[in-house]
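Much of what follows relies on a compact textual record of a protein's fold. Think of the row as the fold of the chain written in a discrete alphabet. An example makes this concrete, so a full record is given next.


***
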Amino acid sequence: MDMLTLEGVSAQIAGVAVLRGITANFQAGDTIAIVGRNGAGKTTLLRLVMGFMPKHGGRVSLEGRDLDAAPARDRARLGIGYAPEERIMFPSFSVEGNLRFPCEVIGMARPAVNQRLAETLSIVPELEPLLSRSGAALSGGQGKMAALGRAIMAGRRMVLLDEPFQGLAPVLAQQYAQSLRRLHAARPQLCIVITESNRSLLKDIPTRTLVLERGEIQTDEDGHREGTGLMTSRTTSRWPVPGKPPGRPAPSGR
């Protein structure tokens, strides 16, 4: 089932084309990597899906619903979680307050928020000892883990992660990857989209990889092309079971 559909999506910043006719389908249960150089349009694409910037052409739909009808403030209500590259945390909130925030904004009942928080902490257990800490007192790596947790709190249908592995120490990168595996095991129909400049950092995490260059989907090293105009590489390894050795890493494509 298609979770997110992009049809000829274009966007501009200050009159300069940043996305050029992007067409792609993102299916429930897929973990999709969007890789490309800095400035390729990866962050712009995620921000457009979240409603934080306008598109200048095309259509974006979530399970067939045109997202133009949903302002940015309602995207979390639709079940889309987002972790920006900047790891924005409210400094006057505790980490727990930051995690609860998207659910409280959309009016979820407290028992439901409590249940979702418990699930999130089971997926990202590194957050539990940080719950009482100020959002301003986190290291860069801790901030990325907290941003992941907040995205999980909101993301019933999709989770969008912008360059999550950039700058992470190896130990934290491993913990982050383990959290993504636990997330997939807990929510097997969730669609996870990860952008990254360095494809090798993703290892065997994605089940599909798209290459974005100068605002357009480009062919990968194998030249795979699908009928939608979308060029992808699909890995042969699937998500490993948490606690067991992962499958064979996907080709680096670099």
Summary: Residues 170-186 form the longest helix (17 residues). Residues 220-254 have pLDDT under 50 and may be disordered. The chain has one domain: 2-234. The helical segments are 42-49, 95-105, 110-123, 140-154, 170-186.
